[in-house]
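ok so i was messing around last nite and threw this chain in just to see what happens. nothing serious, just curious
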Amino acid sequence: MQKFKAFLKRKNIEISVKRYLVDAMSAMAQGLFCTLLIGTILNTLGTQFHIGFLTATVATVNGTPYTIGGLASAMVGPAMAVAIGYALSAPPLVLFSLVPVGIATNALGGAGGPLAVLVVAIVSSELGKVVSKETKVDILVTPLVTILSGIGLAYLIAAPIGKAASWLGQLIMLATELQPFWMGILVSVIVGVLLTLPVSSAAICAALSLTGLAGGAAVAGCCAQMVGFAVMSFRENKWGGLVSQGLGTSMLQMGNIVKNPLVFLPPILTSAITGPIATCLFRLEMNGAAVNSGMGTCGLCGPIGVWTGWTNPSAAALENGAVAITPTAMHWIGLALVCIVLPAVLCWAIGLLFRKLGWIKDGDLKLQ
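result:
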């Protein structure tokens, strides 16, 4: 056993929840962001503002024309797989071999492709690390083991994993349609909490293909956390904190949450209010790329996802019955209120009450 543990340590293989569910999922979300999300944004900008070079075909592959954004989105599978391998400290030959593994797994996983990629990329990456530099023909052995194990595993489990993830996402979305008030609260609170915890809410939303009304509730919850913490902690962190949390991530407050868990309550209560407002009052739907549902105001990706979903629904959203619309003034008002105004006002007011009650003290929200 000691020899086995020493071998794993030498290969930098750490079997842990943090490595596989925190580090790998966070990296996967970045791969999604740099391909599918950016590609969707570029396509929307090109279409809405008639930007020629963004709407022009730059390459045709197997008869399919691609714009710049289209090419970026098409690379989502390999980007996720490579990002996961990078998070697992995979050596170069393993990392590069994950490109075909990612393409195959994402294609076989269908709507639940991201979750399938997460599982398959972790397994094939670790197996590649096991054999890496163990033979004199490493240039052949490592890529062969990584690619064959990855694509072989994808062939066996990607479709079932994808269907299971898609089924769960469909169940959440159906429940939100049937019970928009209670599910609005539930989805908003849970996804918002996941955004602030060291877990990737974006990757989870992408894995579940969470769009539509449930996606709108998720956006509300994430914005409540980010904007809420940014405004509530303004007296401690000033403008730098406002920007870093409001446009960056509320995860910066994790250290303070551990010290005083009560600071987590105002954003959570805010999300419990804005969630049903989004689902019941404004019928706010997020029909852009599903990863946007878990992004909040990080780079304004949540609101941008709602906007792109209005004019150019994602493939996942189209499968769920979404159609392109021309947004009205009420759509824009609802988006502004749910994503920015209400989180700022409500969380500030609840936070002020908590300060008066002595539950939050000066300095409790100070970023180090």
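not much to say yet. Residues 9-165 form one domain.
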